[in-house]
## 1
Amino acid sequence: MKSGLQNDRMLRALARQPVDRTPLWLMRQAGRYLPEYRETRARAGDFMTLCSTPELACEVTLQPLERYDLDAAIIFSDILTIPDAMGLGLSFVQGEGPVFAKPVRSASDIKRLAVPDPNGELGYVMNALRVTRAALDGRVPLIGFSGSPWTLATYMIEGRGGTDFRTAKGLLVDAPEAAHRLLGLLAQSVVSYLNAQVAAGAQVLMLFDTWGGILSTYHFREFSLRYMAAIVDGISREHEGHRVPIILFTKGGGGWLSEIAATGCDAVGLDWTVELAAARQQVGDKVALQGNLDPTLLLSSCEGIRTEVSRVLDSYGPGSGHVFNLGHGITPQVPPEHVSALIAAVRELSPAYHR
Amino acid sequence: MKSGLQNDRMLRALARQPVDRTPLWLMRQAGRYLPEYRETRARAGDFMTLCSTPELACEVTLQPLERYDLDAAIIFSDILTIPDAMGLGLSFVQGEGPVFAKPVRSASDIKRLAVPDPNGELGYVMNALRVTRAALDGRVPLIGFSGSPWTLATYMIEGRGGTDFRTAKGLLVDAPEAAHRLLGLLAQSVVSYLNAQVAAGAQVLMLFDTWGGILSTYHFREFSLRYMAAIVDGISREHEGHRVPIILFTKGGGGWLSEIAATGCDAVGLDWTVELAAARQQVGDKVALQGNLDPTLLLSSCEGIRTEVSRVLDSYGPGSGHVFNLGHGITPQVPPEHVSALIAAVRELSPAYHR
């Protein structure tokens, strides 16, 4: 078994090596749809306390694995830890999501920023990884992650989620040099952050480019993809004799799959608008693919979910190289038994593709 | 000149015939960013009065043409006229957008629906077209339009905009036959509506599939594309000796351009995430392309807008077959002088591509 894991299905699929069935984990699998998560979250008080207390982060990371037969754990954290560590004053406003007290708007704001110390301001994430890796005790691999530079930049510039991105897009058009300076600094920060995550126990890495898909192709290449490629180059991919695979996921990036795959990443995450069969044809000999059931369909009936799972598996087709996942994070309203139906369908239907 | 028009640049580009410069119009060019629109809108009282009073609809349709040098007019109307005519009780709630008093949720709700009479309940749209066509007096072509069946269905099922589409998507998964019945009825309604629009004076037709891009590829093909193809087949494309071109626009449909082009439409609309050069390579010998500047960039500086316009023109490259437009409608906050900058840039920079 890879890395001394009891279940190395995920690592094997990422390396496109034979597996007995398609491995499975779910974006935001530790989250509000689980009553046990809501209980721990209430106990923690606020969201950042939950993220920054290693024992609580470990507890919620493991909750979905207690309930379901999943092939990976993903460290419970937030994508905005880096800008928070840069001193932008992150808070979570009820019903509004993340808000930065000090958004970054000008070249001089950008000049004041520095790469945060992954073992200093961000040390709580490393502690959470160490505690969780020990608690997992080799059951399944532990995934570490970060937001992509562009995605972090959108929140830092806009100051909050839920906007039309006019300020962030305006910076690209009207002050491209300042934008490059910010994105370069963020790429450096992400490299140091992810390398530290590997040292602290992360066995797989994932980069969430949640907002790459709102850009024109030109802007995506210049301001998002270029910096993700720099991160893939900058990460130490070998750790304790094992390769650490990295997954890039640009939501809405279906038109750029070949270019994303060409960064040297190990796998590309797909949202549900992309057809796995077509994606595999484009990039399947270079990288593994992760995805891509529409999370909204988890609100349909259990029979409907099974049909849709079978469509996803059938679209990828026979052979290894597919990690089953959603095309975006689970939403809070999903009944936990619908997740059971999804997992049962993947378990029952996927072995036929691995004979 | 085609159809006796003083300016037939748009029709020539849609037919991929030589033009002196790239024709230009803007989605939602008659809208809230214009002070004269807001004045007429205030005078009308409510939004549906504005749509349903032919003289007022004509007035706002012509406003952007008085201010700017545009190559087409688009009849001022709403995409939800058909469901409104079906008796679903459309209203516009301040800050919330369209709301239906009687959303369609069950097979029995769907069975009660009938194709509306385009010269009955929808006669006000035909009157607006007749009045506007006369007022235009051949200056530029007049575009008629409809929402696509799937896009109309999302609003009818959800009952409002701004949702996560769980109910509409749930119907596709859990009651596909009912969904097909609804979409078939809507396709029939759109055919009869658009044919009547041509009889009333529309010289170009456009189908807005605003919500096609939220679907998986499988669901898009089954529940959106199939019905758009049926509409293209069903429309009488010749009128008074002239061909009536039809443009299909699926926002977020960049992954499906070849399939959209294969419906037999004359042009495909593109949002800003798609690269015109790549799209042209895929479909350029079959159809014209319309788009695709990110409307959010109209909030940048006038210099920035010019740079981005030149990128769009350069991406399409030399030759006819491109209708310049945005990748989605103009937003209310755009300063009208920024639209002037965009139009000036297209006028000045595009002739070089048509020598």
## 2
Amino acid sequence: METLEAINKRASLKAHLSTREVEQDKIIKVLDAARLAPSATNEQPWRFVVVKGKENVENVVTRASRMGRRVFDEAPVLILVFVNPKDYVFPDGKTFYLLDIGLAMENILLAATDLGLITHPMASLDGDKLKEMLDVPDEMEFVLATPLGYPTEGSYEQAAQEKLSQRTRKSLSEIAYSNKWGKPF
Amino acid sequence: METLEAINKRASLKAHLSTREVEQDKIIKVLDAARLAPSATNEQPWRFVVVKGKENVENVVTRASRMGRRVFDEAPVLILVFVNPKDYVFPDGKTFYLLDIGLAMENILLAATDLGLITHPMASLDGDKLKEMLDVPDEMEFVLATPLGYPTEGSYEQAAQEKLSQRTRKSLSEIAYSNKWGKPF
């Protein structure tokens, strides 16, 4: 898929996840995309625990869910993103590792879209429970997760169609200025 | 360009920026890519000031540089990213807007790569000076910037070749685990 097309078609589609197994080489392509993201001083602060298999994912999601409802607990793959904030440079006291995680995560979402796979970034899982369940060292911090799976529909495009038609985004004139703040782009 | 190819070829290439003007429709494509990124509760916290014209960019960069050296001061376009942290939900006290900025920024970098344009994300500019110069409201926070320009070489690929051949990234086995922390992916 062309880059701008993938950027345009990426959507959060947890309602369309099928239980069909995802091939290991596709999971690797998705993680490799994350690996190639830029980061401040090339720190590469991202670490991934990839939970595979419907039962394993269900177990993790059920125990770490916070919202009183389980989400994507039937996904065949769950990618959990952790970071060690202590290893990291904080210019101006900012938690810049979150920016780097965002750069890597977008690569994950776009690579998955390109491969016809569904994602849905989500932060509302209990980090402490995840760490306990998955033997994650104390110093690490859970940031966010995404399920990875094939769509229940015949194609990614079919699965995404409705969500994309309802997508709301600020217009360019609301978010971009030319040369000075307030001057229309 | 294919999505995975753009992800693979994206590199930080400030040394290869030419002064050639960038067409407005290409700048719009790049910002539109940012606009389509996901964000927590669809907050879309990103705001952009796009400085255009070599002289304007040089003026901004010279006055806001922190490192005792000016960087990309000859770029034809400089995209500055701001955010209003106060408008934003902070799950667990985390500055999650930085994660969202990362998601949008990666779209900028990939869309530019796809269009044959050079980028170089960089946070080390003086946010207070930028805000003063560009009439940015007090409550906003400068996050990072990237120049945008054509390569000095004949193509993006030629410009990126050396940098990509020297790229260092942790291997997948250093950053990803299977089902539990420490279990090789």
